[in-house]
Amino acid sequence: MNQPPVASSQPVLDDSLTIDLAQASKAAYDYYSGTPFTPPAGYRQVDAWTGWDEFLFTGSEEKYGLVFQSIADAGVCIFAFRGTDSDMDAYEDVHFLTTDFVPSAGGINPVPRVASGFYGIYNGQGGAMTQSMREQLFALIDKYRPTRLYVTGHSLGAALSQLFTLDLMVSRDLASININFSSPMVGTDTWQVAYANTIAGGTSIRVYNYWDYVPALPPSDLGYTHVGTGFRTAFYVRGEWFPHILSRHSIVNLTTVLSNALPLRPQQWAGTFPDYVDASLTMVSTLPPAGTDIPWADRVGGYMAFEGALR
C-alpha cells in the first residue's frame, strides 16, 4: 500500500468545525440506537427528525437526525444525519434505479436524477407519520431560523445531507456549509451539474477514506458521480489479509485520523491507533495516495463473480 502522497491541492479544513460536525454525525447514530450521546463542544441538542425506511411492501418510521444549536449564538445550528448501521447496508439504501429530484419549491435545471433509495427516505412517508423527512426538516428551519447553518452526515446520512443542502438552496435560497463524511454517490451527471451550478464553491466538502468501499458505490457503470470538493484520508487495518470494511468506514476511526491530521500543514497524518470497531486490531493511517480513486465497488463485483465461478 505504499504510494506517493496526495497532492496538497486538497481544501484546508477548519479544524474545530470539522471535528464538531464529525461528532454531531456520531451523535446521530447514538440517538438512533438509543444510547447516550455527546453534543459537539459549545452546542446543545434541541430537536430531532425521523424518516421512512421502506422495505419491500412495508416499512417503519425511524430516527434519522439531530438539531444542535450553538450555546453562544442561537442563530448557529447543525443539522446532523445518521447513516446505516452496517457496512453493506449502503447497497440496500441506494436502490440503484434513479428518480427525479424535485425540490420543495421552485425548479432546477437540469432535473437531477438521484438514487431512488436515498430520495425515498428523504421524501417518503408511511405508517403514523404526519410529515415526511423533508417536511420535518423545513419545519425545523422555520422553527429555529438559523443565520448560519451547518449540514452534515456520515454514509447514508452524508447522502441525505446533500439532498437537503440542494433543496434548501433551490427552495429557500438558504445557503449552508455542508461537510459530510464517507458519502456514497447520490446521483448521475445531471445531479452533479445541478449541484455544482446551485451550491457555491467551497461550501460542500466530502471527507472520506481512500480505502473505504462505500464512497465507490454505486458501481461506476451505473453513471453515478460525486459532488462537492473531496478531502482524502487513508487508513486501514494493519496486517489485514482481507478488507475490514466496517473499520475502514467507521466515523470514529475517521474522526481519529482527522483529529491528528487537521492541526498539521499539510493536513495529513501518518500513525497508528486502536480500531474502534475491534479493539484487538490496530489501524494504520498513511499519507493519502495520489491519483484517482479506486472503483472499489467494481472490484467487489469482480471478486463475487470469481467466487461464484469456483462453486
Describe this structure in words.
With 311 residues, this protein is an alpha/beta fold. It is 33% helix and 23% strand. It has one domain: Alpha/Beta hydrolase fold, catalytic domain (Rossmann fold, 3-Layer(aba) Sandwich). The protein is built from 9 helices and 12 strands. The strands form 3 sheets. The protein has a 7-stranded mixed β-sheet, with helices on both faces. A 3-stranded antiparallel β-sheet has the order 10-12-11, covered by helices on one side. The protein has a two-stranded antiparallel ribbon with strand order 4-5. A hairpin with a 7-residue loop joins strand 11 and strand 12 (282-285). The longest helix has 19 residues, at 15-33. It is globular, with a radius of gyration of 19 Å.
**What is the count of DSSP helices, taking H or I runs of 4+ residues?**
9
Counting structural domains, the number is 1
Distance between the termini: 31 Å
Which assembly state applies to the chains in this document?
A: single chain
Please identify which CATH superfamily we are dealing with: Alpha/Beta hydrolase fold, catalytic domain
